[in-house]
Design brief:
It is a single chain. By secondary structure, the chain is of the alpha/beta class. It has 18 helices and 15 strands. It folds into 2 domains: about 375 residues, TIM Barrel (Alpha-Beta Barrel); about 80 residues, no CATH class. Helix content is about 30%, strand content about 15%. A hairpin with a 5-residue loop joins strand 14 and strand 15. Helix 1 runs parallel beside helix 6 and helix 2 packs across helix 6. It starts with a strand and ends with a helix.
């Protein structure tokens, strides 16, 4: 049975390997975020790989030729203080590198059919994050994905499995196809998922991945043994949970049931959306998961959204849950990937009662409501949002759409309005959309600086329950650790 406490797989790099490793060392389920890990990897390498962690992980990858190619291409000169003891791959990769440029290289935008190089990069990036999270202990480590980000899912899953990931968690969609994918990838067999294509009608589109083919091109080499991880689906209702159990019998090992107050993306309210005076979606009784029905399914479940207290933890157990998932309290601890300056500024505001969280119905290109945490200088401010030139150069949240000739193209409502309309989108769908991809990457100190000097601003997210942070901070101490969160909950459960 998995631990009672799950650390949420938050944002882009917020739930990084350091946080997941610490939580796993404490006997709970540490989770890394699997979103945009290929971009994170090349930007860490582009920053000189402080501490040498990425190189250490890539040196453990089963095929050194693959990791060497990535290091050759993306690693820039060492920052001061990095140990020069990582072997020949490291030395070769550093030759001729230049860390002087503040701009990071950009990858081709994700699409349904990825090149082998992009597949290998996704495999490496997910391998590295999980490898580092699991390094040196026997605790339980998971990885979290958004089902709506479909293009990178298959090679990303495989990379995490090569590193021995114990659990895969997935929400923001209906991930009923994933259990069978895990089965096939564990045998190094081709896998595919149905692609969500706007305007597809009766035509079916897929994105596919064949790990065996990749290994055959590298030498050829025999694929290393992997095991199938457990799978936890993130849901908002017992109805969806029941449908997933029927679609994938035996393949669902548990559920995380998220309430609307949880951070990041939220499931839309059931029925016709209504907005409050402040412009937030209104959630009602219909949006509360039926915990009795969840318990009757006989599948373990964890409750998420407002459960970061001793009383709520006990209440969850009393309701039949195996445990809880906690996000916000971990997101602002010292081990999280958040930029330290942003973290301290936000916690100082929480202490003074000056921080709030807005459930924005328009911010996310996915059309799911998204929690935006208020902080000066970030995209939570209208002026900062208006000043940002519209640009889509990471593209993880692009949607596939069917062109008149039946082929697939891609668009994002956060891209330039003229481009979106030219691709068949409606101008009104672009209003208020924020570039989550760039904003979330900027949260962890890896934001892009463009050629004209413009620097991508951050976009913080958090759950509504900011009060859960106050027990850990004071006027003289705006920092705390993952251990503090774990001990405040599990030791008293």
């Amino acid at each position: 049975m998995l631990p009672r406490l799950i650390q949420g797989g938050m944002g882009v790099g917020v739930s990084g390997w350091q946080l997941a490793r610490e939580v796993a060392l404490l006997g709970q389920l540490g989770v890394v975020s699997g979103t945009a890990l290929d971009t994170i990897l090349i930007r860490r390498l582009g920053s000189g790989d402080p501490g040498g962690h990425m190189r250490r992980a890539l040196a453990a990858f089963p095929d050194p030729q693959v990791s060497s190619r990535v290091l050759d291409r993306y690693l820039r000169g060492d920052p001061v203080g990095v140990a020069d003891s990582l072997g020949a791959i490291d030395a070769d990769a550093r030759a001729g590198t230049d860390a002087s440029s503040p701009r990071y290289p950009l990858l081709p935008l994700p699409r349904a059919k990825l090149t082998p190089d992009r597949e290998w990069l996704l495999i490496l990036a997910n391998f590295a994050e999980v490898y580092l999270a699991k390094e040196g202990h026997h605790g339980v480590v998971g990885i979290n994905f958004l089902h709506k980000i479909q293009f990178p899912i298959l090679p990303s899953l495989y990379g995490a499995m090569l590193a021995g990931v114990d659990v895969v968690l997935m929400g923001a969609g209906i991930p009923g196809d994933i259990p069978a994918v895990l089965d096939r990838l564990a045998r190094h067999e081709p896998a595919s998922i149905t692609l969500d294509v706007l305007g597809a009608g009766d035509q079916r589109y897929e994105t596919s991945f064949d790990p065996g083919r990749l290994w055959e091109t590298e030498g050829p080499r025999e694929a290393p043994a992997v095991r199938r991880p457990k799978f936890l689906a993130i849901v908002s209702s017992a109805t969806l949970a029941r449908a997933l159990v029927k679609k994938a019998p035996g393949g669902i090992d548990g559920f995380v049931v998220e309430a609307p107050i949880a951070g990041g993306h939220n499931a839309p309210p059931r029925g016709v959306q209504q907005l409050s005076r402040d412009g937030e979606p209104i959630y009602g009784v219909r949006d509360d998961a039926d915990l009795g029905q969840m318990a009757d399914m006989g599948v373990p479940f964890w409750l998420a959204g407002g459960y970061a207290s001793r009383e709520k933890f006990r209440a969850a157990l009393a309701a039949g849950a195996h445990g809880v998932q906690v996000g916000t309290a971990f997101a602002f601890c010292e081990e999280s990937g958040l930029d330290p300056t942003l973290r301290r500024q936000f916690l100082a505001g929480v202490l003074q009662g000056e921080r709030s969280v807005f459930t924005d119905p328009a911010a996310s290109p996915t059309s799911f409501p998204f929690k935006v945490a208020a902080l000066p200088g970030t995209l939570s401010e209208a002026a900062v949002y208006e000043e940002r030139p519209r640009l889509c150069d990471l593209g993880y949240l692009r949607r596939a759409y069917r062109k008149p000739d039946g082929t697939v193209d891609y668009r994002c409502p956060a891209e330039p309005v003229d481009d979106y309309v030219r691709k068949g989108g409606k101008a009104e769908e672009t209003v208020g959309r924020k570039c989550l991809c760039n904003g979330l990457v900027a949260n962890i100190g890896l934001g892009q600086q463009r050629a004209d000097g413009y620097e991508e601003p951050p976009l913080l997210t958090a759950g509504n329950d900011l009060a859960c942070l106050k027990p850990f901070i004071s006027a003289g101490r705006l920092s705390y650790h993952a251990r503090d969160v774990v001990e405040s909950l599990v030791s008293h459960a």
